[in-house]
Specification:
alpha+beta, Ribbon-helix-helix fold, two-stranded antiparallel ribbon, 2 strands
Length: 90
């Protein structure tokens, strides 16, 4: 399984920083922000302000995973559109 990790520059609280995320996590993060009618930067800033430890990229991955897990529990019969595992496996 190959991984397409890309470094992305973002601005949080007026400071430029970078995160390294796989394309699927970045796309999912954009989808979550859009559904919440907010910007990706605002979502990331919120995560940055509330994370207890670890790096920001890991915090984002955990947030995306938790979001889709919660959706799967709340709506077990629904197709949630972002199957990260199947998107990577032939």
């Amino acid at each position: 399984m190959s991984s397409t990790v890309k470094k992305r520059s973002i601005i949080i609280g007026g400071h430029k920083t970078s995160i390294s995320l796989e394309d699927n996590f970045w796309t999912s993060l954009k989808d979550i922000a859009s559904a919440r009618r907010t910007s990706v930067s605002d979502v990331i800033a919120s995560l940055d302000a509330t994370r207890e430890n670890g790096n920001l990229s890991s915090a984002i991955r955990i947030f995306v995973l938790a979001h889709y897990r919660a959706m799967a529990v709340a709506h077990p019969q629904r197709d949630h559109g972002h199957d990260l595992y199947e998107a990577r496996c032939p």
